[in-house]
Each structure stands twice: as structure tokens, then as C-alpha cells.
Amino acid sequence: MATTVKAYGVTGPNEQLKPLFIERRAPDDNDVVIDIKYAGVCHSDIHTLRGDWGEIPFPMVVGHEITGVVRSVGKNVTKFKVGQNVGVGTLVNSCRTCENCKDGEEPYCLGNDELPGYVATYNSKDWKANWTPTKGGYSQMIVVDQDFVLSIPDGMSLDKAAPLLCAGITMYSPLRYWNAGPGKRVAIIGLGGLGHIGVKIAKALGAEVTVLSQSLSKKELGLKLGADQYFATADAQTFETLKGHFDLILSTVSADLDFDQYLSLLRRNGSLVEVGLPEEPMKVHAFSLVLGRRSISGSSVGGLKETQEMLDFCAKHDIAADIETIPASYINEAWERVLKSDVRFRFVIDIATLVWSRDSDDSQVYRLLEISPVPPGEHMVIRPAGAILVAYPRFCVQKPPLGDVLYLLQIFRGDLLMIHGHLIDLHDVRIQ
């Protein structure tokens, strides 16, 4: 039986995200039903909903950095049990029969006669749901085949683990493929959502790690994360100082680069790997490649086996994303901050903040409000339609900026107000 769940998404082009309801397919015998606890905010989410990568069907819900707890399992499920901490990354199915799938490289699925390729966690046609579009993790629950669910290691917090399901494996996969480790010199271009995790993983693998950033504004932070060196690329001397120094360079930025400049930093047989997806075609002179037997390559996320390996590696080495946890009402503002690179280093949505209800009977009234956290001990201020209510400490609720809203359910029976899943007794609330 299909299930209707709460989500944050869009119902048309050029919209800000808003509360809505979506339908999850009925689970089959091989499926795991997951109560989502946290969803990371990835730049891909923004590109997708803004139509940067092509048209999308509506309504659409994004999010492919998902952590949660198993609610139920199908009778054929052997890998997971109820109550287990799990994760879902960028894909939820593949053909499983092509050469790449058999090699554990599901993100590079070639497809077959029945399935054209891998099924992405969102904005992809799901053959298990009559080819309807998949919808992502900015929602309460998801149904996923057990072969595409990942185990979150014991002791790893679900909020900090969420970005590892995309950003973490995006960095881990090329570092492993190009054998980053002791004796290898690795440069990471950009210290953002991808780069900061890359620094941690490369260092844990035993490589010498250098951050290349436009300025030195994040130098102290980069060194604290584990980088051995930090250079500003705006300084022309950087390219003279580091000429022929690196075995591997990972570019995590979407800005257009002078690839000839960066290729000059590679040793013989060195590789520059692009994971940041610049919008413009790459321009490079052949001599920059030929004279040092250097190469430019690209890398997507890793397969399921490698992603599980990454999670276990991060747990062993105490690696997690540096995050800012946000309520669902803050998503639109968070997206604007991502575009301004104003986050250290990933936003993660607390899915418990998806609290509203259908207008199913006369006793329920919707109120449009915005919630932002306040320090412990301060009051919650509610501003619905001119009235101000002050209640016991939890959250501060203020008049929302455009598009940054959350539905709160006023339950008149018993005079209780439900905020973030917490019932507040209005008898103790004073009106100003």
C-alpha cells in the first residue's frame, strides 16, 4: 500500500521550496522502509530544482544525503533489521546485469533492455513505481531496495553522516582509485563542502595534503582539518613554488579554471581529477598533457560496496562532515547561503521539523510561521496574524521572510499547540 508523507519541495518552476505531501510506493518483499532523520543539502539539489541540468517533472523533492532508521523490512530482506541506523545515497537502483554493475560500479550503469541505466534517488524514473519520478530525502520516509541501502556504523551520528552519502564518497572514490596514500602528494582545489571532507580522507589515507584556494582566508581552518600546506591561487608565485609537485589534484570547484596552469603542478604521470562540474567546456593545450604524460579525468560517486567501505573507513578514523543543522523552514535561506559559499561546510536538515497536518477536519487550523533556534532558556515567540504568544523555552518563532515558512498545526481540542512534534499547553501561555 502506498503511503502519503510530508516533504519540502516545489510544485512548479522558479518556486521556493515549501511544505507539501508526496506519495511513497508500496514496499515489496526486497524493500526497506526508512524513517528519515536527516537530509544533507547538496549543491546538486539546487542545480536540479533550478533547471540548470534540464527540465524536471513536478512536484519534485530533492535530497540524496539521507540517514534514518529502519521502520520495516520485506520478507526477503536479510541485510537490515528494524531499528537499525541506515543511509541512502545518490541512487536507489540499477540494472545489475551490465559489466559496470557487476563490477560494483552502479553509478556508471550501462542499462539493459528493461532499464536504461541507474535510478537516481530523485528526478529519475522508478521502474518499481510504474516509472513515476523518484523523490528524495527532504521528506519523512523513503522506500528503497535493500541492495541500495547502506549501514551507518555504530557510534557515527546520523546528522554528521548524512553528507558522507554524496560528498564523502565523491571524494573517497577518486582518492582510492588514484591510490592516494603514503608517499603521494595530493592537492585539493577548494575548501568547501567537498574539499573539507577530501582533506580529512586524504590525510587519513596517509597522503601529503595541500589545499589550493583563491585566497588565504581559510588557511587556519584548512590546516586544522589536517592539510599540510595551504596556498592561495590568486598569488602567481604559488604556481612557480608548486610546479611539478603533485601526484594527484582533485578539483572540487565549479568555477572555470586555467587547466594549463594547474596541470603544470603535476609530476610526471600525474592526474587532475574533476569532481566539481564546471558549467563551461574545459580548455587545455595538448602540450600540457603530453610533455609530462599528465592526464585530466573525472569521477562520479562510488558504487554501493565502495560507499559502505567509505563509511566504515570514516567511522574508523573519526571522520565526519562539519555541518550546520537546520530546521526545514530554513531551507530556502540555506540554499541562498550555499550559493554564496556561506556555510561551514554542509547544511543538514533535521527532518523532525517537518510538522504540519492536512486540513482534514474543522478542529484543525493552519498557521504560516518561520522557526529559528534560540539559546536554551529563552522563550518561544509566536506571531500569528497579529497576536504574540510566549511559551516555555524551545524555539523562537518570528514573522517569516518571503518563502521561508513552516506550517504549524493549532489543535483547539485541549488547547494544545504542536511545535516540532512537541505539544505545548496553551493554558500556560500568555498573550501580548
Automatic annotation (TrEMBL):
Family label: Belongs to the zinc-containing alcohol dehydrogenase family.
Family matches, as Pfam families: ADH_N, ADH_zinc_N
CDD domains: CAD1
SUPFAM superfamilies: GroES-like (SSF50129), NAD(P)-binding Rossmann-fold domains (SSF51735)
Gene3D superfamilies: Medium-chain alcohol dehydrogenases, catalytic domain, NAD(P)-binding Rossmann-like Domain
Names of required cofactors: Zn(2+)
Protein's recorded name: Enoyl reductase (ER) domain-containing protein
Domain of life, per lineage: Eukaryota
